[in-house]
Amino acid sequence: MKRFFLLIGLAMALLPVRAQDNTKGYYKDIFMDSGIMLNSRTDLPVTEMLGLSMEAFVSTPHSSARKYKFTRADSLRQRELIAGSPIDENGILLYPDGQPRFRMVYMNGGKAANHARSLQETGRQAIQDFVKAGGSYLGSCAGAYIASVGSVKPGESQVSYLGTYMGLWPGHAVATKLEKSYTAVDIVPDSPLTRYFDFDGRMHIDSVRHNGGCYPNWETAPEGTEILATYHTTGRKLERDIDGKPVVWAHKASAETGRVVLCGSHPEGARIESDNLRLMAAMVRYALAGNGTPQLKAVLHPGEPREMKAYSSQNDPAHARIGDRQYHHFRIDVPAGVKTLTISLEGVLDADDFDLHLYASRKGFAYAGEAPWCNVGQRVDKKLEISDPTPGTYYISVYCATTVTATEGKFGVEYGGRTDVLNGVPYTIRVDFE
Predict the structure, then answer these.
(1) Is residue 324 located within the same domain as residue 223?
(2) Which residues touch 255 (CB under 8 Å, ≥6 apart)?
């Protein structure tokens, strides 16, 4: 099995795929929500196929016979992870400055209304902030419902669950009324999905699991909503005619926000080579390609130290601490006649044993392996000196190399080691001209 995934991953690397924006500066690729009243999935096969990193929260499994098997510990752990706790006040999804810590959230199927309520307002707000700041979102079935503003019945205007769903895609979901079944799926002509995975020219998938999913109400769909694939149910007698209705759709509000990709069915469980797995891979890749553009923290001025010491709760992202595996980007304009450009980092007493790296470049944001000037020594304090700098704009980046240790536990991944990095590392950055 591992050999199959490796070969597919290598083959995918050869496909002509549009260059992705903002692939660096995240802790990991995917956070999977298998929380209260969702399918308690512990793995996502497509991540191995695509070589992506993932962490998950997994609640106690529930079933139709025992719908409320989860415990108070489930509720407490879910709230601490998503909404925050004293050791991670911004929550697992966000850095101290409110930027996304993962590239994408994947939300499983299950009981949409129950899970939405279990997240509570603070948990829902954290996911909304995640997408607004540039993190992408992929949801299957219940994950698609929860991402809407609410559900409606065809031909009716009354909305259910208004206020408990998240509105990541600000439209209404419509229930298919089809449970424990399968439908065919047609990938629409010129679908972006075909740019992110090779379907060998096949635009029809014979059988995709479906269990109470949805499709978008096109009358209330926001501008910019893309239809990526549709249900194919020709010849079937169903309670609600869904033939030709969208089964996969997407929306990206702006260049700064993440892309939201929603699916009414369940291709996520496919574990062997199949069109289901290819469909899931294409959705994941399209979502990740829609991450928001990196943001500049500030324009630095010579001789003026800039303190980056604010906690998340202080609501000052322009001066916030840096999180694990995150980049902070700055800019400095260097005039003619400067003999030496000096860039300095200084730590804070009792918080100077974290490893921060310093990079500089003239060609855009400075990243490891690309920037011509760097200092990647241990601890916080360090300097970069650039002699006879060419006049013009220089980009400076600070990177936090210190991170937590992650191990598998009862509720998915649990953190140990340098958990103090979760509330961010304080530092002062300064540039000087000579």
Answers:
(1) no
(2) 292, 293
Number of domains within the chain: 2
Residue with tokens 């130290």: 305
pLDDT of residue 18: 31
Report the pLDDT value the prediction gives residue 239, as an integer from 0 to 100: 87
Q: Residue 245: which of 261, 262, 233, 259 has the closest Cα?
A: 233
**Amino acid identity of 254?**
S
Tell me, what CATH number does 373's domain have? 2.60.120.380
Rounded CA Rg of the chain: 23
For 408, the domain range is 296-433
Is pTM beyond 0.85? Reply is: yes
- Choosing from 231, 265, 289, the residue where a domain stops is 289
Interatomic CA distance for residues 110 and 122, integer angstroms? 21
What CATH number is attached to the domain comprising 67?
3.40.50.880
Q: pLDDT for 83-120, tens place per residue?
A: 999 999 999 999 999 999 999 999 999 999 999 999 99
Closest among 90, 74, 97 to 122, alpha carbons compared: 90
